[in-house]
Design goal:
This protein has 334 residues and is mainly α. Helix content is 44%, strand content 4%. It starts with 9 loop residues before the first strand and ends with a helix. Keywords: Disulfide bond, Electron transport, Endoplasmic reticulum, FAD, Flavoprotein, Glycoprotein, Membrane, Oxidoreductase, Redox-active center, Signal, Transport.
Length: 334
Amino acid sequence: MRLSSGLAFVASPGGFRRSQPVRVPSVTGGLPGLAATNCALHDESLAQGIAAIDSAQSTLHPKLEQLRMLPYFRLYSCDLMASCEYIPQELFECYTESCEVYPVDDEDVPEDIKTADFDEHDFELDGWARWDMPSDDYYDTVQFSEDYTGYDGRDVWSFIHDRIGFHEGDMATDKYDADSWKADFNKAVSGLHAMVSAQVIRGINDKLAAGEQLDPESYPWTDPHAEYHRRLGSQGETPESVENMYFTMMLLLSGVRTARERLKEECTKGNIGDDEAVQTLQSILAHPLLDDPSIDAASHRLREHALQDRNNLWEARMRTRDLMRVMNWYVAYF
């Protein structure tokens, strides 16, 4: 089973299923800091967890960067056309060169990775499978890393927030912090959106720092400071965006900790790449942040709300699968 840190773990009766890489970005180059502790929190119960994450970044982030450079944790097969099931596209291609993503040549994909993915079918999806497994095309998340491509993803995000997110009842007035698992779901989705926004802002800043001229016809956003305040600022379009990003990070860390023993078992069996991959992953799994009880604030909140009704877990799982299906395509093109 190919699992890595930085993955979104989707719980299922048969165990943990590999999903798309989710990275926790940082914004550098003189831009405002992303620490949510710099501003008032809407949910004060997250404060200690946010502080713990901030304190751990300097030691955890280098390990994650080292891990993602290894073949076993950078090559993934995915369906770039997955979102077409939800959002039909016009029949023409985007001709922006920066959006081009090409699969890895088959001979360049290690056989152990292909074998592991081919054999990964013993998990159970509520007794049935909704979709086929991903295609045989592998993509390199380092060769085609997160970047500012100029792609306008507003239609995709509008679909995600409007059709997959929740707005009825208490969510009509308190979308992210109402006393409901649906608000928790909205908060986690907003956190994913904030991660992408941070990567876009960093991409703009990096291009400008490298002396690139951003043609407004290809790159609609050219001012990283303006985009930071619009997308992530406390007075921006989503004042809670950075807090929500930490909320999502806490859920991710809790998921990694839950999967830790299984991951260690896979390391012992020799199913996790080479020795370097095993050692790097084990060093991440041993990081003190995973054992810090303050990071449980998000998962406790979500779990308590979800367990109020037996149907909640089912609906949460199905909405999450729809979200991951749409994001499967979108993460490659922002």
